[in-house]
Structures are given as structure tokens and as C-alpha cells.
């Protein structure tokens, strides 16, 4: 094939053509759908099939190893709300802030491997409360600032715990200004 900018012949003439379609004498039969089995309730609306009806289809579609059949069957095994520990996702994310921060966050980073949502909150808890711990050490000589920092700690623990619990349904990340972006980058790079 010649890629020169100025060609004397059209490039379509030298291109290989596709073979002509085969003429088949037999036609495949048109697919037929089974007649609808409609059961009605006492209010005249159609009733839903029992849950066992759907369970048998799921097992049948995943029994072939994921090849052919339902293309989405491989995605049934992915669960964004699954955690390594036998605790609900929202409770586990709350533990990052309630379980003696920053030690609770570090413990969850060691124990949790499946949920990025929990790992984000564990990273954020570890980073935020380590920085606050260092600030506590610096201002430990004044009683007034120490008590004010304790109030800030308690308010921050309550706020972050509430957001970790509420946002677990949508997996939204509530990021604290500097440390939240840092925690997000750590989780995204893992």
C-alpha cells in the first residue's frame, strides 16, 4: 500500500475486497418466545415470580464457567460492600474513627484488604489523628489549648464517624481538606 500524499490512482482499486456472501438454501427458524405465564393477584396486577425462580437462573448462568450465556454473569461475584472482617461496611468504616484513633485506623489497614471504602477511612483516620496527636504533644504545656484541642478531637471524631456511616450506602468519600486527598491517593494507588 502506498501512503504517498499525491497518488495517481485511487487507493480503493488496489485494496483486497471481501468475499461475496454465501447463498444458503436453508433458513434458520425464527426464535419463538414461550407464551407469557401471567398470574394475577386479587387486585388485578400481575404477581412477581418467587425468589427461587431467579436463583435457579443465576446458578445456571454461572455454572458454565462464565463463558457464553449471560455476559454479565461474571459481575455477580463482585460486591463493593464486601469486607474482609465479618462486620458490616458502615460499622467497619465507623470503627476507623471510634476505635482509639489513630490506632484503630492502623489496625483496620492491617486487617482489611477488600473494601476501598473502609481503607480510605482508615487512612484518613490515621493521618488526621496522627497530626492532631503531634499538635497535642506540641501544646501539652498549656491547659487551655489542650482542652480546646480535646473538644476539636471529639467533634471531629463525631463528624467523621457520622459521614462514614451515612455515606456507606453510596460509597461517597467525605474528605478532610488536606488529609482526605492524601488518603484517597493512597487507596487509589494500592
Quick overview:
The protein has helices at 51-62, 89-98, 103-111, 116-138, 143-166, 179-189. By secondary structure, the protein is an all-alpha fold.
Please provide the ordered H/E string of secondary-structure elements.
HHHHHH
Structural class, from helix and strand content?
mainly alpha
Radius of gyration: 30 Å
Number of helices: 6
Structure description:
There is one protein chain. The protein is mostly helical. The chain has six helices and no strands. α2 packs parallel to α4 (116-138), α2 packs antiparallel against α5 and α3 (103-111) packs antiparallel against α4 (116-138). The two termini are 46 Å apart. Residues 56-76 have low confidence and may be disordered.
Task: Name the descriptors.
190 residues, 6 helices, mainly alpha
Write the layout of secondary structure elements.
Elements: H1 51-62, H2 89-98, H3 103-111, H4 116-138, H5 143-166, H6 179-189
Amino acid at each position: 500500500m502506498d501512503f504517498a500524499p499525491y497518488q495517481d490512482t485511487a487507493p480503493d482499486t488496489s485494496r483486497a475486497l471481501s468475499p461475496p456472501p454465501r447463498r444458503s438454501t436453508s433458513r434458520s427458524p425464527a426464535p419463538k418466545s414461550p407464551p407469557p405465564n401471567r398470574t394475577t393477584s386479587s387486585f388485578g396486577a400481575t404477581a412477581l415470580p418467587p425468589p427461587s425462580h431467579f436463583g435457579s437462573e443465576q446458578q445456571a448462568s454461572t455454572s458454565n464457567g462464565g463463558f457464553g450465556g449471560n455476559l454479565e454473569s461474571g459481575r455477580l461475584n463482585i460486591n463493593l460492600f464486601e469486607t474482609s472482617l465479618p462486620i458490616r461496611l458502615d460499622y467497619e468504616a465507623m470503627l476507623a474513627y471510634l476505635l482509639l484513633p489513630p490506632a484503630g485506623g492502623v489496625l483496620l489497614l492491617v486487617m482489611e484488604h477488600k473494601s476501598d471504602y473502609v481503607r480510605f477511612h482508615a487512612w484518613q483516620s490515621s493521618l488526621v489523628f496522627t497530626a492532631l496527636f503531634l499538635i497535642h504533644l506540641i501544646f501539652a504545656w498549656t491547659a487551655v489549648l489542650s482542652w480546646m484541642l480535646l473538644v476539636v478531637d471529639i467533634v471531629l471524631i463525631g463528624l467523621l464517624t457520622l459521614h462514614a456511616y451515612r455515606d456507606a450506602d453510596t460509597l461517597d468519600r467525605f474528605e478532610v481538606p488536606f488529609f482526605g486527598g492524601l488518603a484517597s491517593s493512597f487507596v487509589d494507588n494500592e
